[in-house]
Amino acid sequence: MRILIVEDEPKMASYLRKGLMEASYRVDMAADGKDGLFLALHENYDAIVLDLMLPELDGLEVLKRLREQKGTPVLLLTARDSVEDKVVGLESGADDYLSKPFAYAEFLARIRALLRRPAHSVDTLLTVGDLEIDILKRRVRRANARIELTAQEFSLLKLFAERQGEVLTRAFVTSQVWDMNFDSDTNVVEVAVKRLRAKIDNPFGKKLLHTVRGMGYVMEERS
Ligand code: CA
Fold first, then answer.
1. Cis peptide bond upstream of 203, omega within 30
2. Less crowded by CB within 10 Å, the N or C end of the chain?
């Protein structure tokens, strides 16, 4: 079991580290939020002990950024015993919370409880009907068949899927996917939509990407 400790107070950090190592855990250390986030994202830990007040990047910011990509269980530490901190911490994706000072036995018990929990699942899967888009892996499947898309087709599909049920104008789609404003009578969007449909809609019985005449497009499952 591998644990990361992100704590800027050297005495506290070595106290935590010593106990965890005696309990046979492998321990890595970071003394500020930036280093802590880097390690948390690039290494694989079974749990992270995260201090709230940290230099460079505070604990909550580390937690928020971590949760965009990873579900590693996190125990937040703070010197302040405030309910507000606790609520904010837990809402930001912490699994547990411990106020300093605490007894080592309690800390260890919390760590053990944390290690028994399954990691958070990071919500990176978008679905529209039987179409599945894995945002992180950039994979698309429909009716269990893998669909290969170009980078631009993927961006276009992601935009429609993230805003499913909303009518998106051609001008909006252009500004989001091509990062520029075309003349409104350009057919760039129409051509791209046609190509996308050929892959995600045409081979399947039911259309998910619909044209709204005079307005734009909407992605939704219609019965
Ligand atoms: Ca601190």
1. no
2. C
